[in-house]
């Protein structure tokens, strides 16, 4: 995929009793993934599917942690100083 292309066309194939696809090497490099890595499929409200190597659940948990830490910053500091 070069800089002017916004998407790749992938073919779906039968793999055993399932369906699968292969990713072109440039897309693999762009996503920074390798064999054995997990890719998460997020269903978007508009019907599209977003593929990402980042766990959306983990991102939500980390955001909640940041908000809690910000809200209780002084309490955490006092606990750390004990």
Computed structural class: alpha+beta
Share of helix, binned: 25-40%
Q: Give, in spatial order, the strands making up the sheet with the most strands.
A: 1-2
Number of domains: 1
What's the main sheet like? 2 strands, antiparallel
What does this structure look like?
The mean pLDDT is about 85. The radius of gyration is 20 Å and the shape is elongated. A hairpin with a 2-residue loop joins strand 1 (about 15) and strand 2 (about 20). It is built from three helices and four strands, in the order E-E-H-E-E-H-H. The termini are far apart. The longest helix has 16 residues, at about 55-70. The protein has helices at about 25-30, 55-70, 75-80, and strands spanning about 15, 20, 40-45, 50. It has one domain (about 15-80). By secondary structure, the protein is α+β, with helices and mostly antiparallel strands. Helix content is about 40%, strand content about 15%. Strands 1-2 form a two-stranded antiparallel ribbon. Strands 3-4 form a two-stranded antiparallel sheet. Keywords: DNA-binding. One of its GO terms (molecular function) is DNA binding. This is AbrB/MazE/SpoVT family DNA-binding domain-containing protein. It comes from Gloeocapsopsis crepidinum LEGE 06123. InterPro entries: Doc_partner, SpoVT-AbrB_dom, SpoVT-AbrB_sf.
């Amino acid at each position: 995929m070069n800089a002017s292309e916004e998407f790749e066309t992938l073919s779906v194939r039968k793999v055993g009793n399932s369906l699968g696809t292969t990713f072109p090497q440039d897309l693999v490099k762009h996503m920074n993934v390798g064999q054995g890595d997990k890719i998460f499929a997020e269903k978007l409200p508009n019907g599209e599917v977003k593929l990402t190597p980042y766990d959306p659940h983990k991102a939500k948990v980390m955001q909640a942690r940041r908000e809690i830490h910000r809200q209780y910053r002084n309490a955490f500091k006092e606990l750390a100083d004990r």
